């Protein structure tokens, strides 16, 4: 039985891939692990295992104890979780963070896409507008919260200014209105986060081939329809990544709430992170605080796992193709 001939490039000593003698397919070359790189990464692995995973496991353990001011070794089973979900304040915080998260992420994606589409038209002073729209994202949530807390303050902000001009019936008291306070947080959050989506979406738009625009203009398609039907589908991965970044920020929302409303009026803007911090430092209830933190960790995993699974399947499909 004759042995299959190797490609000409291989016979000349070229850098062509190795072929299996029976299948004539390129064989994967196994690379030996780089020992120096592995040693260099050991401190990083140590920090990841001890600082992150270790403290997380320790916090989960404390959530099954009756720890108060100091850690305790007395296990109480699921008593802290039962107490947690029987708390009206905790349930209100979950509802508030859900409302805030959905409106915040959706508002940032929508406004960011519209801003990117406007700048993509190559308007004058584009760099200046891009800097102005992105500037709020460079500020901390504390600064954002203080700015909007002052603007929406009925006695000092927009309402007082408009009434001083003669419009006495004008009302803009969202930060002290129980029904509107959560939407005041959404407004401030969208004002800050839309710039991030704008930059990501604009970068994606500038990467789209110009031939698509030429073909759409020849067909007489309106500009708005081009962005909705042609550009937007191609920005799916970029907008998904931006949405994931925003969603991760929603889980740990704390500083903007403290700066604007401090969780009030009542429990109208209470969020899980503030509930945890209040029980950890204010009420010295370590067991209940760690139970809430564990629920938040599970929430992050539930939010991130589907996205990571989809990305993994896409990469696997690309590799198979």
UniProtKB/TrEMBL annotation:
CDD domains: TM_PBP2. Pfam families: BPD_transp_1 (PF00528). Residues 1-26 are annotated as: Disordered. It is found in: Cell membrane. The chain crosses the membrane at residues 35-60, 97-119, 131-151, 180-205, 226-251, 286-307. Keywords: Cell membrane, Membrane, Plasmid, Transmembrane, Transmembrane helix, Transport. PROSITE patterns: ABC_TM1. Coiled coil: none annotated. Residues 94-307 form the ABC transmembrane type-1 domain. It is a multi-pass membrane protein. One of its GO terms (biological process) is transmembrane transport. InterPro entries: ABC_transporter_permease (IPR051393), MetI-like (IPR000515), MetI-like_sf (IPR035906). Belongs to the binding-protein-dependent transport system permease family. This is Permease component of ABC transporter. It comes from Rhizobium johnstonii (strain DSM 114642 / LMG 32736 / 3841). The lineage of its organism: Bacteria, Pseudomonadati, Pseudomonadota, Alphaproteobacteria, Hyphomicrobiales.
